[in-house]
Write a structure and sequence with these properties.
The complex is a heterodimer of chains A (504) and B (103). Chain A is built from 21 helices and two strands. With 504 residues, chain A is an all-alpha fold. Chain A has a two-stranded antiparallel ribbon. The model of chain A has no long low-confidence stretch (mean pLDDT 91). Chain B is mainly alpha-helical and 103 residues long. Chain B has one domain: Helix Hairpins. In chain B, helix 1 packs antiparallel against helix 2. Classes of the chains: A mainly alpha (504), B mainly alpha (103). Chains A and B meet through helix 7, helix 8 and helix 11 of A and helix 1, helix 2 and helix 3 of B.
Chain lengths: 504, 103
């Protein structure tokens, strides 16, 4: 009977088994998510590190499935009636997200133990948020985009409030929830208008319908604009960034490490899929707004970061500025721009996770390592960690031969090639400003502690922490030296996008 | 049965509800009222989806509405838990007072 009903509404029976293969990475990680939630109930508090190990195993298995999927081009295509894309674009982004999550899981147990926050739900929630991000990166329907965003957001709301007795953490979670819900409202209203005006919720359907429309309706444009506002909140682009510094500062540092990178990467993937690919035909109508938001983000992010005295807030504002640089890749309509954005996402993940990982690992028993004073003299006590931090800061500032330099180089050169010289000039000018605040922190690490003042009591480096730092350092250097490797992967990702490659 | 003539009217109503919700989030200071305003925004979206679905004669709008209802419930659960946590730690329920962090 159900079959007859489905046939009556024009749907085939059950999704083919092929679709399950396409969903395999997400399925593995979802299994881990549920399993960890259950295991937490029977795990004694002393054995919680085992949960960290298990979550790392699941993340590594998923990463393995993603890497296999990259080469398994035979299955690439749309699954579940066009709502989920199994393609190189999604898999490239999945790789960045999973690698970042792995580094975060490596550095978490030590930090959480020192802060007295080592609960098992932490790992389940990290995996839950990662599943949401993977769905978001592969979503090719408005419904799945919304589901992915909410799965990652709701998990992160809880993670931000993880230090539930601390006022800062409570504040961080509540602020994130309120502004996140507000942003979801805008995104959804935009989706409702786009659905109403095109009659489709799948990106394929929307694109076909947009191509058929002659002239664009004002309600449709409002819908596109509202969707952009929703995405801009998630990637913390100015002027929708006001939540970022408070949420980043108040959340436990390991959570900040995780969310500062992965949320932005996943939301950018969806943004590129929706704007550069689906809404490509209406490009001239929205590119001005995107370019404006990019410039505002670069200016506000960099100027506000200059006056900070908290490392976490400084990196939060730097994240706003980095979102601006990456948005240039969306504001410029060319395949190179999309590839540049993808490259920047990978570079941003390596260097930003690295910088935040240092702050997480060095945090002592009491307060988070947060104020500029607490980082003073780090190089004399922890020379290797300080050297790594210096590298990440150089990379964030855009010095060669690091990841950050080539990220900026590809995005700016794409802008110049397509005549958007103003955008590139704003980018170059603001990155010159950014050097000041990155180097300020770098210099503090290498300056002697003040006379007679007890320095901050930095934590010891653990084996897991060293592995995490080595991985992020290697990532920052590989992206800066073996540029061709990642650039060709990003090019393949751009070309292999379903349903239609962005800006092709 | 929803009459098709009501389509523009309902769309206008949903826009009005959305505006009321958005203004509520921006001006109200009690976190509980802010959460209610967010719910109002999401329900305005639901109305728009159902309305468009009826107008286009497609089920997608109604399916989307069901998804939104479920997600909104999940978000409300987390939101209320956070508000009660703030309240239990003995702080006043005022969004403006949530400002431990300033540079």
């Amino acid at each position: 009977m159900t079959h007859a009903l489905m046939a009556a509404i024009g749907m085939p029976g059950f999704p083919p088994a092929e679709d399950l293969v396409r969903l395999l990475p997400v399925l593995i990680l979802s299994t881990g998510f549920v399993l960890l939630l259950l295991l937490d109930l029977v795990t004694p508090p002393s054995a919680r590190t085992a949960l960290a190990v298990l979550s790392a195993v699941f993340l590594a298995a998923t990463l393995g499935a993603v890497i296999l999927g990259w080469f398994d081009t035979a299955h690439h295509g749309l699954a579940y009636y066009g709502s989920y894309a199994y393609d190189r674009f999604g898999l490239f982004v999945d790789g960045i997200i999973l690698a970042s999550a792995l580094v975060v899981v490596l550095i978490s147990p030590g930090y959480l133990n020192r802060r007295g926050l080592h609960y098992g739900e932490y790992y389940a929630l990290i995996l839950g948020a990662t599943v949401g991000m993977m769905l978001l990166a592969a979503a090719s329907s408005l419904v799945v985009i919304f589901l992915g965003i909410e799965l990652l957001s709701v998990s992160l709301y809880i993670l931000c409030g993880f230090a539930h007795t601390e006022e800062r953490s409570q504040e961080s979670a509540l602020k994130y929830l309120m502004l996140g819900g507000f942003a979801s409202g805008f995104l959804l209203y935009g989706m409702a208008l786009v659905y109403g005006e095109t009659g489709h919720t799948t990106l394929t359907g929307i694109r076909a319908s947009l191509d058929a429309l002659h002239g664009t309706d004002s309600l449709l444009l409002i819908g596109i604009g509202l969707m952009f506002v929703g995405f801009a909140f998630k990637i913390s682009a100015a002027p929708f960034h006001t939540w970022t510094p408070d949420v980043y500062q108040g959340a436990p540092t390991s959570v900040t490490t995780f969310m500062s990178v992965t949320t932005k990467v996943a939301a950018f993937a969806a943004l590129i899929r929706v704007f550069s690919s689906t809404f490509e035909g209406t490009y001239l109508k929205w590119n001005g707004i995107v370019a404006f938001v990019a410039i505002v983000s670069m200016v506000i992010g960099n100027l506000a970061a200059l006056g900070q005295t908290s490392v976490k807030r400084m990196l939060a504002y730097s994240g706003v500025a980095q979102a601006g640089y990456m948005l240039i890749g969306v504001a410029v309509q060319s395949p190179q721009a999309t590839v540049g954005s993808l490259y920047y996402l990978a570079a941003y993940a390596a260097m930003n996770i690295g910088a935040f990982a240092v702050i997480t690992m060095m945090a002592g028993r009491g307060e988070d390592l947060d104020s500029y004073d607490s980082i003073r003299g780090l190089a004399f006590r922890r020379p290797y960690v300080a050297a790594a931090m210096g590298l990440f800061l150089f990379s964030l500032g855009g010095f060669p031969p690091t990841a950050g330099f080539f990220g900026k180089f590809f995005v700016f050169s794409a802008a110049i090639q397509h005549g958007q010289i103003a955008l590139a000039l704003w980018g170059i000018a603001t990155s010159a400003v950014s050097v000041f605040y990155y180097l300020k922190v770098g210099l503090l690490m290498y300056s002697r502690p003040r006379e007679g003042e007890a320095g901050y009591d930095w934590a010891r480096t653990t084996v897991a922490g060293s592995v995490a730092l080595a991985a992020t350092t290697a990532g920052t250097l590989v992206l800066g030296i073996f540029t061709y490797l990642i650039y060709s992967a990003a090019t393949l990702a751009q070309m292999g996008t379903f349903p239609v490659p962005p800006n092709s | 049965m929803l009459s098709i003539e009501l389509f523009p009217l309902l769309l206008g109503l949903s826009a009005a509800m959305f505006t009321v919700g958005a203004v509520g989030v921006l001006v109200r200071r009690n976190p509980l009222v802010v959460l209610m305003s967010i719910e109002l925004m999401l329900n305005a979206v639901n109305l728009a989806f159902v309305d468009y679905g009826r107008y286009l004669n497609s089920e997608d709008g109604q399916i989307f509405t069901l998804v939104v209802i479920v997600v909104a419930a999940a978000e409300a659960v987390v939101g209320l838990a956070l508000v009660s946590q703030v309240y239990r730690s003995g702080r006043e329920l005022d969004v403006d007072d949530l400002s431990e962090m300033r540079e």
